[in-house]
Specification:
Blueprint (H helix, E strand, L loop, with lengths): L1 H15 L50 E8 L2 E4 L10 E8 L4 E9 L9 E5 L6 E7 L7 E13 L3 E2 L3 E7 L17
Protein name: Serine/threonine protein kinase
Organism: Streptomyces sviceus (strain ATCC 29083 / DSM 924 / JCM 4929 / NBRC 13980 / NCIMB 11184 / NRRL 5439 / UC 5370)
């Protein structure tokens, strides 16, 4: 591009001053004032000034997005009647924190045994908003008895792939014994 501009400037100069400038800046056909170009340099002579290099954008790309993911649990060892109340059920809270705004994070809840795997969810972090958000998950069952043990974590797939720490839990369902009147309850005989 620079070479083309210099070639055009040189051609203009040569056409306007084809008599080597002997007429004091006037053209051969026009006795009026001459039109001067801003840079009257000859293109066939080397220049002491280095030619400018192609300009580089001064705007740099933003750094890659980062996501921190951590998981905490409460009531992770439940024993009692099932299904438990939400206030007593194993509860898990994931905290997702992004490095810059705006951002969108896609994640899901997963368990080691596959029993609590959820579908992919999306959290949006708008410009001007907070860089940290939380989501909560409760674990329960409709079974009347038995023990359910597993480990839960959170997988992030976008904008980066990352997995939270794992939190183990145990949910033991105990059948309620009826409070009685003091009388024996009938049982079936074989």
């Amino acid at each position: 591009m620079l070479a083309l501009a210099l070639a055009i400037a040189g051609l203009t100069y040569a056409l306007l001053n084809h008599d080597n400038g002997d007429k004091g800046g006037e053209t051969a056909k026009d006795s009026g004032p001459a039109v001067s170009s801003p840079a009257q340099t000859k293109t066939d002579e080397p220049s002491d000034t280095p030619s400018p290099s192609p300009s580089k954008s001064t705007t740099s790309a933003p750094p890659p997005q980062s996501v921190a993911v951590s998981l905490s649990g409460s009531n992770t060892d439940y024993t009692g009647s099932c299904p438990p109340d939400r206030s007593a059920a194993p509860t898990f809270t994931v905290t997702l924190e992004v490095g810059r705004l705006p951002a969108t994070v896609t994640y899901r809840w997963v368990s080691k045994n596959g029993s609590v795997n959820g579908s992919w969810k999306t959290l949006t972090f708008p410009a001007g908003g907070g860089k940290s958000q939380q989501d909560r998950r409760f674990v329960t069952t409709q079974d009347d008895s038995g023990t359910f043990e597993d480990t839960i974590s959170v997988e992030v797939r976008d904008p980066v792939e990352k997995t939270s720490n794992s939190v183990p839990f145990s949910l033991t369902c105990v059948a309620e014994t009826p409070t009685g009147t003091g009388e024996a309850s009938p049982t079936a005989s074989p």
